[in-house]
Amino acid sequence: MKGFILLVLGIGLLHTASAVTHALKYFYTASSEVPNFPEFVVVGVVDGVQMVHYDSNSQRAVPKQDWVNKAADPQYWERNTGIFKGSQQTFKANIDIAKQRFNQSGGVHVNQWMYGCEWDDEAGVTEGFEQWGYDGEDFIAFDLKTKSWIAPTPQSVITKLKWDSDTAQNEHDKHYLTQTCIEWLKKYLDYGKSTLMRTVPPSVSLLQKTPSSPVTCHATGFYPSGVMVSWQKDGQDHHEDVEYGETLQNDDGTFQKSSHLTVTPEEWKNNKYQCVVQVTGVKEDFIKVLTESEIKTNWNEPNIVLIIVVVVALLLLVVAVVVGVVIWKKKSKKGFVPASTSDTDSDNSGRAAQMT
């Protein structure tokens, strides 16, 4: 198998497809000297949802979604386990080759291969991609139009020349990326439509740390991942002093995204600012008008630290009073008792308050 790779496991997962553009992607990742991480991992993803997993620790290809078994023949898992085991050895050798090309010795190194396809279910447009990377940088990529390889570094030119000469394999790659991959993507979408084709509206909140902090419009719990979180001022789109966050995946498979607006309280109180959230596949727009009552914050809540300090001070005062009363009673009965002057006195914990 050809094999150098792309980026770092998970980078591609951040770019997930919306309800209109669907994607099937596979990530093969080999690493060296990464503590507490398998040396080789394969992940198959449909629209940002992991469906297949293999790693060098378990050495088994396993489904991550119940519906993926419906699209697989009975020998699918055994067959892919064998393929992934073979790839594991190839990728291990690739790291050694890459280290030689880049004149490296030991240390942490990552080698990744990513390939897959996208399909726009409205326009019918398809796209295929196949890329390799090393240590987080592009190493080589396949050009579908020319059926040739792009080498962005001097170290990858050797690989380009070798792979360009294998025209039969390049024809096969193009057919897979433009035909076979799309067919499988549609199958997975059909079998997993209850999950992959669902729409879930967002929960939208306006958040602020302090009165002088930016106001954050936070949308979460929505599906699919296609979302636009924008601001309007007096009914017009507003982009000034606005910072947009990335779309992130929640533990339950839904997504979240934030947009931060830097504006003074006087400004938003004298003008109508509102956050508008639009999710692909959901016809309704979700709007939050920036008002004092809508902002969720903790700067108006009691200062917990101050309360704790006050409580501790009061407790210490009570203890001091009690101790003072006890000492006064003893003095009134026995008179003043000086501290011991002996370091070996069993009742003495030290020479504190000793007078000479």
From TrEMBL:
One Pfam family matching this protein: MHC_I
Q: Report biased composition (Polar residues) as residue ranges.
A: 339-356
Q: Please name the PROSITE patterns in this protein's record.
A: IG_LIKE
Record-level GO cellular component terms: external side of plasma membrane; extracellular space
Listed InterPro entries: Ig-like_dom, Ig-like_dom_sf, Ig-like_fold, Ig_C1-set, MHC_class-I_related, MHC_I-like_Ag-recog, MHC_I-like_Ag-recog_sf, MHC_I/II-like_Ag-recog
Q: What residue range is the signal peptide? A: 1-19
Instruction: Provide this UniProt record's keywords sorted from A to Z.
Output: Glycoprotein, Membrane, Signal, Transmembrane, Transmembrane helix
**Does the record bear Membrane in its keywords?**
yes
Q: Where is this region: Disordered?
A: 336-356
Listed under GO biological process in this entry are: immune response
Give TM segment ranges: 304-328
Domain Ig-like, by residue range, is 202-278
Q: Which family, according to the similarity comment?
A: Belongs to the MHC class I family.
Which protein is depicted?
MHC class I
Origin species, per record, is Salmo salar
Starting at the broadest rank, the lineage of the source organism is: Eukaryota, Metazoa, Chordata, Craniata, Vertebrata
